[in-house]
Write a structure and sequence with these properties.
Blueprint: H1 9-12, H2 15-25, H3 36-48, H4 53-61, H5 114-120, E1 131-132, E2 141-142, H6 146-160, H7 165-182, H8 202-212, E3 225-227, E4 248-249, E5 258-259, E6 268-270, E7 281-284
Antiparallel strand pairs: 1-2, 3-7, 4-5, 6-7
Helix pairs in contact: 2-4, 6-7, 6-8, 7-8
Length: 292
């Protein structure tokens, strides 16, 4: 209730008849002194409608009917004894609640926009860190599920149990990059391309959780493949059925050249700081589509 428009019929009526009607409504006979009960009724009315034209006149007739809450009413000089309307009154009636604080001197609340509601909404668990957009999906999908953490930690432990921090992190991000490229939110969707036969260590679980929550930067710049040169067939050894289509290379401190996987010819090699060449070689498949 922030005021009344001039178009209301009672706002155009003379002041005295309207205020007399209010007095009759509360049982005040002939404008005489009201009884305590009648005063109580009038006081409630004045407390709820301090700026009403009739209320201003009643206050001039019964000045002892003050507002119940200090500061809820202050009749301006031009209003006392006049028949003005409320459309021009700067007064704002107080809340109809009699038990709460008085907010009559505060401006009306502004509507809350949808953007403001969104900004003030409680954040969901890990909403900003544990969700990452995946190709082909309209919304972000949470990746740090219990199964994903366990499966990724198992791969990290199986592939890089003796690796350093950079090597373990690079292995974990290679798995995540494959998930992104293949549009899956489940580690199991790409786990067949990696060793995963060892029980995950606590350190691997912690690392997997951070990777899936996007709390670490990808040191591989999007690598999708890796292999370990120290476990590849070496020059002069029988290759059997191993994929050695990439030819021979010299890797770090290995005494002999090792064979490369066939994809090494077409994919881009990724040099990762602090990764030892004899332990890992990382590659990135071209484009942004699914990878095998």
């Amino acid at each position: 209730m922030g005021g009344y428009p001039d178009s209301l019929p009672w706002a155009q009526e003379p002041l005295a008849p309207f205020s007399e009607g209010i007095q009759r409504f509360f049982g005040v006979n002939g404008g005489g002194p009201p009884t305590p009960v009648q005063k109580a009724g009038l006081r409630l009315f004045l407390d709820d409608f301090p700026g009403l034209a009739g209320a201003l006149h009643i206050r001039s007739v019964y000045p002892d009917l003050v507002a119940r809450s200090p500061g809820t009413f202050a009749a301006p000089p031009y209003a006392t004894g006049l028949g003005g309307n409320l459309g021009s009154s700067p007064l704002r009636p107080p809340s109809r609640s009699r038990s709460g604080p008085d907010y009559s001197d505060q401006p009306p609340s502004e509507p809350i926009s949808a953007a403001a509601r969104k900004r003030n909404a409680p954040e969901r668990r890990h909403a900003s860190k544990a969700q990452q957009s995946l190709p082909g999906r309209q919304t972000a999908t949470p990746l740090d599920t219990k199964d994903n953490v366990n499966d990724l930690a198992r791969i990290i432990t199986s592939e890089a149990s003796v690796g350093n921090d950079a090597e373990r992190s690079s292995v974990g991000f290679t798995v995540l990059n494959r998930m992104r490229r293949n549009g899956t939110a489940r580690v199991k969707g790409v786990s067949s391309g990696f060793s995963n036969n060892q029980t995950p260590t606590p350190d691997a679980v912690s690392l997997a959780t951070k990777i899936l929550r996007n709390q670490l930067a990808d040191p591989t710049s999007g690598a999708t493949h890796f292999y370990s040169p120290q476990f590849m067939p070496k020059e002069g050894e029988t290759t059997g059925r191993a994929d050695v289509g990439g030819g021979l290379e010299q890797s770090g401190k290995l005494p002999k050249k090792n064979y490369r996987f066939g994809y090494a010819k077409a994919f881009s090699p990724v040099a990762v700081p602090h990764v030892r060449e004899e332990h890992f070689r990382f590659y990135r498949a071209p484009g942004n589509g699914p990878v095998q």
